[in-house]
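Narrative of accomplishments. A recurring question from our advisory board has been how the design workflow behaves on a single, concrete structure rather than in aggregate. To address it, we present the structure tokens for one chain from the evaluation set, followed by the sequence designed for it. No filtering or post-editing was applied between the two.
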């Protein structure tokens, strides 16, 4: 993650394009006190080969955002298609020529004390340059957390609710302080749920296994990409079934998936090597396929990506004074 974020970045707040410096909320905002927001994380990957920025599966992200907002009864006043259009506009105004992370956030915005929600909702979309989230080229050392994954009947893990990320923050913080790169959380039944900010896959006997969406996991879009690529391009059986903790210690390969982490191999769990503690060959293959797909190198998966840069407008001066001051 970049150390500093440029305050001149252009962001979208309630449909208006303004600078990050100007985009402010009051300290009594409901979501700030009670966690009543729903967010998304979307990537756009820069391809040097095509001199193009590719936005990855925006419609799927925005459909999930709207569905999840419905769980908290937050109204997002636009369709997934128009949210995608706003995002394209935002990326173009910022003139990014590097890989980018996009953070849509919808939240309860009334400024008052009291946990009951009302109909005052706001939304923001922020895009920022973004590199690797976890340094995973040599493989990660993950630790099973003593914190349990939040249960659907407490705070739905599938809903990407701001307040739910206290669970992820507690687990990540503990994991890092104990010398691990990432936490793996078990659910209340004691089965493996997911990483603090990512889904989990294990390989056993050339079968790819991941917990079903009813195990208190986020219904990951990278998870869906991986399942599709593994089935169609590698011919693997992909099985959704509960995973026991001790299976992590005896599996052949293990990896984590997410918009931010991409596909991150895990080579050690709880101080035990996964197989011979080297990145597994199926993990390597799926990871390569994923990066080929998101960079537009696989024709069959061009449908996952939306080009951002209008090449014919490339040389024209930029119309917006805000974008001009950002100067990318
Ligand atoms: C808890 C959690 N699980 C899984 C994921 C992966 O989901 P996706 O692949 O849609 O980014 C994320 C990240 O968004 C997450 O926060």
């Amino acid at each position: 993650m970049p150390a500093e974020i440029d305050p001149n970045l252009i962001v979208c707040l309630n449909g208006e394009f303004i600078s990050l410096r100007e985009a402010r909320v009051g300290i009594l905002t409901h979501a700030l006190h009670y966690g009543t927001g729903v967010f998304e994380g979307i990537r756009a990957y820069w391809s040097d080969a095509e001199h193009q920025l590719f936005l990855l599966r925006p419609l799927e992200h925005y459909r999930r955002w709207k569905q999840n907002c419905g769980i908290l009864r937050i109204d997002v006043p636009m369709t997934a298609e128009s949210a995608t259009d706003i995002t394209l506009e935002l990326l173009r105004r910022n003139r990014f020529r590097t890989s980018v992370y996009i953070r849509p956030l919808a939240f309860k915005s009334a400024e008052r004390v009291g946990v009951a929600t009302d109909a005052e909702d706001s939304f923001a979309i922020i895009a920022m340059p973004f590199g690797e989230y976890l340094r995973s080229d040599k493989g990660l050392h993950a630790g099973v957390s003593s914190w349990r994954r939040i249960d659907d009947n407490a705070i739905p893990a599938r809903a990407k609710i701001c307040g739910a990320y206290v669970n992820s923050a507690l687990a990540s913080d503990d994991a890092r302080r104990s010398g691990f790169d990432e936490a793996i959380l078990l659910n209340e039944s004691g089965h493996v749920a997911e990483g603090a900010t990512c889904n989990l896959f294990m390989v056993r006997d050339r079968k790819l296994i991941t917990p079903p969406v009813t195990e208190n996991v986020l219904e990951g879009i990278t998870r869906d990409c991986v399942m599709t690529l593994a089935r169609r391009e590698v011919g693997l059986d992909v099985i959704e079934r509960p995973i026991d903790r001790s299976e992590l210690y005896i599996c052949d390969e293990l990896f984590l998936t997410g918009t931010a982490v991409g596909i991150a191999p895990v080579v050690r769990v709880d101080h035990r090597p996964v197989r011979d503690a080297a990145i597994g060959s199926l993990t390597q293959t799926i990871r390569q396929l994923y990066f080929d797909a998101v960079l537009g190198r696989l024709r069959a998966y061009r449908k996952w990506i939306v080009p951002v840069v209008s090449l014919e407008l490339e040389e024209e001066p930029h119309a917006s004074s805000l974008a001009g001051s950002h100067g990318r």
